[in-house]
């Protein structure tokens, strides 16, 4: 992957905040990207997983049953709770249109990243979860 594209991902993907270009390049080199077509489920509520995803392009939706909880676009991450708590998926994620995703597994954390990069990514995940909780609290209180 070229340096310009990596710089673009660093700028647009909050998961990579604070990481160096070389670290992100290594993560992409060892990780996996996947293409999904509109209507395809990435994962289903209640299933077990140890992967999280970053939207590199396209649009996805998060569902609890038929209720749409959120829409995900380029730069958004999802599925990170599976890496943190190892519990069943709390929602279903479906591609709204053809999309490209980066898959980050627990194995990538354990084997392929430096401690510094892993800590930065985990802090970015915590930050994202904190923002989501704050937004959910606002909706609940309102």
Summed up, the domain count is 1
Round the mean pLDDT to the nearest integer and report it. 87
Uncertain segments: none
Structural class: alpha+beta
How large a portion of the residues is in β-strands, by DSSP E?
A: 25-35%
- The gross shape turns out to be globular
Strands side by side in the biggest sheet? 1-8-3-6
CATH class: Mainly Beta
Q: Separation of termini?
A: 45 Å
Instruction: Describe the sheet with the most strands.
Output: 4 strands, antiparallel
- The helix/strand order is HHEEEEEEHEEHH
| CATH H-level homologous superfamily name | Jelly Rolls
Using only C-alpha atoms, the radius of gyration works out to: 15 Å
Q: Helical content, roughly? A: 40-55%
Question: How many beta-strand runs?
Answer: 8
CATH architecture: Sandwich
Q: Look up the CATH topology.
A: Jelly Rolls
Provide a compact summary of the structure.
It contains five helices and eight strands. The protein has helices spanning 3-12, 21-30, 80-85, 106-112, 115-141; strands spanning 32-36, 41-43, 51-57, 59-64, 67-73, 77-78, 92-95, 99-105.
Notes on the structure:
The protein is of the alpha+beta class and 142 residues long. The protein has a single domain, classed as Jelly Rolls (Sandwich). Helices cover 42% and strands 29% of the residues. The protein has five helices and eight strands, in the order ααββββββαββαα. The strands form two sheets. It has a four-stranded antiparallel sheet with strand order 1-8-3-6. A four-stranded antiparallel sheet has the order 2-7-4-5, with no helix packed on it. The chain starts with a helix and ends with a helix.
């Amino acid at each position: 992957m070229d340096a310009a594209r990596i710089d673009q991902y660093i700028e647009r993907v909050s998961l990579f905040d604070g990481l160096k270009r070389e670290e992100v390049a290594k993560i992409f080199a060892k990780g996996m990207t996947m293409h999904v077509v509109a209507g395809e489920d990435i994962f289903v509520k209640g299933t077990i997983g140890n992967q999280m995803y970053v939207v590199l392009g396209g649009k996805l939706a998060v569902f609890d049953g038929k209720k749409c909880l959120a829409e995900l676009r380029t730069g958004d991450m999802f599925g990170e709770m599976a890496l943190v708590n190892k519990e069943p998926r709390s929602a279903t994620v479906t591609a709204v249109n053809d999309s490209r995703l980066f898959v980050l597994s627990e194995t990538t954390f354990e084997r392929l990243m430096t401690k510094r990069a892993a800590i930065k990514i985990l802090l970015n995940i915590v930050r994202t979860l904190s923002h989501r909780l704050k937004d959910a609290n606002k909706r609940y209180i309102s």
